[in-house]
Amino acid sequence: MNKTYTWKRAAIAVLVLVSVVACGKSRSVKIVASEVERSKTPAKLPADIEKLLKTKHNEADLRQAIVLLEQFSNENPQYQDVKVTLCRANYLMGDGHLWLKLTGDADTDAPVKAESIKFYDAAVSWCEAALAMNPKFRDKVVKDGLEVEKALDVLDVDDIDALYWRYASLGKWSRLSGFTTILANRSKFTAMVNRVRELEKTMGKEYFYSATLRYDATSNALSPTGDKKLADKLFEEAIKKHPNYFAVRVLYAESRLKGDETKFKSQLEYVLKGNAKSLPEIESDQIVEQRKAKKLLDEM
């Protein structure tokens, strides 16, 4: 009798989980047939866009940069790097400028989160457009009708930026869309990050300040069933590898250290006292992370 009861409870749990996952919010993949050939050289952006991108830690400048970049990309569709830049610009709007406006009040935050979802969705779309510059990938998705995650094997090193930032953007979009959406997309996150790992091996080096290591840390930290001790270990390892990459310290503090005031303050104060120019290629992103660190400290 007990075995039967246990089996029934397990069966019900599985059915409930399947139902919950099925209720997750979905988004349409915007990849279409195209004869545009990917440029072998990066785009030379107009001076006004370059200037705005250097000051994208200012919200107004980033919003204007996105408008001008969209226009440039539509007129010059051969540049994969511009599409990735648009993906990351939209991501920064959601993860940076709009995140800084969150107050913790549901009514006040609702329109901010709604706008964030739109920016994350745009980020995913631009990265998908960048991936579609790979003709083998595009054919698998458009002609063969495969899901994006079933076509990742044909992506190459040139696609790693678009692939990683699609994962990052889809992850943020899913989290704001609700727990069921995260569950529904979890296998997609794993597939994309695993392909990034494979491309790292091809390159013979890690990608973007230990990106895959941060994924392992974050997934364990945020998942209800994640290994929290392992998450802490991996965060510490990522910080040791790249001590001046501020985002990992902010994420570590926010996701794991709120119950340890000393460690929480230590990580965030390091960010505040750090030099954003120590990583000049992402200086604006670093400045935004410093603002996020200050917000978290102010909210203690």
UniProtKB/TrEMBL annotation:
<dbReference type="InterPro" id="IPR011990">
    <property type="entry name" value="TPR-like_helical_dom_sf"/>
</dbReference>
<protein>
    <recommendedName>
        <fullName>Lipoprotein</fullName>
    </recommendedName>
</protein>
<dbReference type="InterPro" id="IPR031823">
    <property type="entry name" value="TatT"/>
</dbReference>
<dbReference type="Pfam" id="PF16811">
    <property type="entry name" value="TAtT"/>
</dbReference>
<dbReference type="InterPro" id="IPR038537">
    <property type="entry name" value="TatT_sf"/>
</dbReference>
